[in-house]
């Protein structure tokens, strides 16, 4: 279901992947610095989640300014929260690369403003912890403030997320967290000798089983 979400004086393009049965939880998903919501990994994950009973709303927000991307993500959260068509108990925020930074930033901002438990957790696909070869500056400040459960899915050869550095940040986080490493995958989740579909299957299954565990904990 295609929708246009009002954002300032323009609109954000978004698509709902709707499960057959009514869903009580949803996932909001967005892309990285390049591309849009039709990035193949996002399309694949959204379809997988919907086929397993989880509503997924993915949206496009162009712009390389993290504050702008965060504002857009927050607008989408509010939109889904107030939606009459899909009355959800809660949502998980998810993003790829820069999109996961925006998601983390939204959770930090919203947790400081109100604590109504609508946001259940955070899924970071290829979280860009640092710039390539620039490991002295970590983008970890939002992560350290978050209290809800966090799942990281990263490639063990990601040039923007050195394995030991992410594990170090995770050990300092106060939130319940899990890291799933995709063996030998780079930032774009490409692995020599494996097809994209094969890698996506691993990612999708990981994300879904983590969501299911966390939804069950809620009940």
From TrEMBL:
| TM stretches of this protein | none
From the UniProt record, list the coiled-coil ranges.
none
Recorded hits in Gene3D superfamilies, A to Z, give: alpha/beta hydrolase
Domain KANL3/Tex30 alpha/beta hydrolase-like positions: 27-209
Against InterPro entries, the record matches this protein to: AB_hydrolase_fold (IPR029058), KANL3/Tex30_Abhydrolase (IPR046879), NSL3/Tex30 (IPR026555)
The protein depicted here goes by the name Testis-expressed sequence 30 protein
Organism, as annotated: Aptenodytes forsteri
């Amino acid at each position: 279901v295609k929708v246009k979400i009002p954002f300032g004086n323009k609109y954000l393009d978004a698509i709902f992947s709707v499960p057959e049965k009514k869903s009580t939880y949803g996932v909001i998903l967005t892309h990285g610095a390049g591309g849009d919501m039709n990035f193949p990994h996002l399309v694949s994950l959204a379809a997988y989640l919907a086929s397993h009973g989880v509503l997924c709303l993915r949206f496009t927000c162009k712009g390389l300014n993290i504050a702008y991307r965060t504002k857009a993500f927050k607008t989408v959260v509010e939109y889904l929260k107030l939606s009459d068509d899909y009355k959800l108990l809660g949502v998980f925020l998810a993003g790829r690369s820069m999109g996961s930074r925006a998601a983390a930033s939204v959770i930090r901002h919203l947790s400081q403003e109100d604590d109504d438990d609508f946001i259940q957790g955070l899924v970071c696909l290829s979280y860009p912890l640092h710039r390539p070869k620039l490991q002295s500056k970590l983008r970890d400040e939002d992560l350290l403030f978050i209290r809800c459960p966090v799942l990281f899915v990263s490639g063990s050869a990601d040039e923007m997320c050195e394995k030991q550095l992410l594990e170090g940040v995770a050990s300092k986080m106060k939130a319940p967290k899990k890291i799933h490493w995709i063996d030998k995958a780079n930032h774009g989740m490409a692995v020599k000798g494996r097809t994209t579909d094969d890698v996506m299957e691993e990612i999708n299954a990981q994300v879904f089983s983590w969501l299911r565990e966390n939804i069950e904990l809620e009940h």
